């Protein structure tokens, strides 16, 4: 029987398809390990299972904002200037905002069962919320209009400024001794199957990040092509009007 | 196995995470399909 080749997706390639399958398998594995197989923690009991989605989400948001900063620097540096860097920066920031939102929601659910409240103005939570709002602002600035280069320049500068907040959030648990616990992994708080489940979460979320950013930056490229064609068409029509 | 009394917050947290990811990915694909209708395959740099 003759096999029909897969219809190419708008932003997919063979690589992104394979990455997508690996990510779905990883997420399934994480759900089974996190909810059913992983043992309970001595202190937090079942609530420690929140760690497997909460910490990877936070890690991914940091990674995404770090990539946004690096890609913005690559655009602003004259020798490496390319709109491709700007698209990667924009895509990464949007994915980072999604995972920061997930971190805030899963963190507030964890806070309710351990501290008795969904929200408290402790230094880690406050700096995280501030970082979230900053990157929403970054995404809004990207949509202000103008040429692609204007968009890339103004958002690139903003991304470099916003990146300064990331170490502030990370080290807030060391500098201000908040209600939020310090690094569980660095203190060796996870062992055996719990540590394994945690790493499944970290690897899976990182694969997911790569998959989402690849698709998102291709979507930005598609929109840029559509915008350029619209502009070319408008210029041609104006030229015809002047000539006739 | 997760204790029944603890299940609500843990399951809600996983549900929010997975639903959030699924919704974003679905919306991304929907927007990509819409934009791709205006750009021929040969003009897409990754194809």
Q: Could you please describe the fold and organization of this structure?
A:
The complex is a heterodimer of chains A (244) and B (47). Chain A is mostly helical and 244 residues long. Chain A has one domain. In chain A, 74% of the residues lie in helices and 0% in strands. Chain A contains seven helices and no strands. Chain A has helices spanning 14-37, 51-76, 83-114, 123-142, 148-163, 165-175, 192-243. In chain A, helix 3 (83-114) runs parallel beside helix 5 (148-163), helix 3 crosses helix 7 and helix 4 runs antiparallel to helix 6 (165-175). Chain A is globular, with a radius of gyration of 22 Å. The mean pLDDT of chain A is 87. Chain B is mainly α and 47 residues long. Chain B has one helix and no strands. The radius of gyration of chain B is 19 Å and the shape is rod-shaped. The termini of chain B are far apart.
Secondary structure layout:
The complex is a heterodimer of chains A (244) and B (47).
Chain A: H1 14-37, H2 51-76, H3 83-114, H4 123-142, H5 148-163, H6 165-175, H7 192-243
Helix pairs in contact in A: 1-7, 2-3, 2-5, 2-7, 3-4, 3-5, 3-7, 4-5, 4-6
Chain B: H1 7-36
Write a concise synopsis of the structure shown.
Chain A is mainly alpha-helical and 244 residues long.
Give me some keywords for this one.
heterodimer; A: 244 residues; mainly alpha; 7 helices; globular; B: mainly alpha; 1 helix; 64% helix
Which stretches of chain B are poorly predicted, pLDDT < 50 over at least 5 residues?
none
Q: Helix/strand/pairing class of chain B, anyone?
A: mainly alpha
Helix content of chain B: 55-70%
**CA distance, first residue to last residue of chain B:** 46 Å
Strand content of chain B: under 5%
Number of strands of chain B: 0
Task: Provide the helix percentage of chain A.
Answer: over 70%
Shape of chain B: rod-shaped
Structural class of chain A: mainly alpha
Mean pLDDT of chain B: 85
Q: What general outline of chain A do the C-alpha atoms trace?
A: globular
Number of helices of chain A: 7
Largest sheet of chain B: none
